[in-house]
Amino acid sequence: KLDGAHAVAFERVADTKKGVYHIHRQIIPMPRRGDGDAKKLAEDFQTAASRSSFGLDELDPSKPFQPSSNERFFVVDIYDGDTGAKTRLARVEARDAPGRFAPLHFGRDLLAAALGEPHKAHWKACEKSQAEEVRLCDALKGLVGEETSS
Q: What whole-number distance in Å separates Cα of residue 81 and Cα of residue 79?
C-alpha cells in the first residue's frame, strides 16, 4: 500500500520507424485525489485508448504478463494505494499488425494531464541531477526495506 498515493506502471514495446525494437517503461506515483481514484485512472486509460483508435483489454493481474517476442504491446498496472488492489490493462498484437497502436507518449501524456502538469509529458521536463537521483533512490530503498549503498 502507498500512503496517500496510487502507483501507475506502464510499458510500451514496439518497433520504431527506424526498425529498432523500443522498450519504454515508467512507474509514476499518482497523488490520491478522492474516492474511486484508481478506478477512474483505469477508465481514463480506456477512454484515451479509444480516442487514439485502439483498445485496452482488462487482464487478470494475478497471472504473469508474458507476450511473445513477435508481439508489440502496451500494458499498464494501476496499484490502488488505498486497498493494494491492482488493475491491469493491455493491448497485445503481432509486431506487424496493421492499424493504429499506442502512441509512444500515450501513458506519459495521460498521466501528466491527470497530475495537472501537462509539461511533464516530455521526459526532459522530469530530469533530475545525479545527486537528486541518488537521494531519491536511497529514499525508495528505505521505503521497501532494502539496504542503501553508495
A: 6
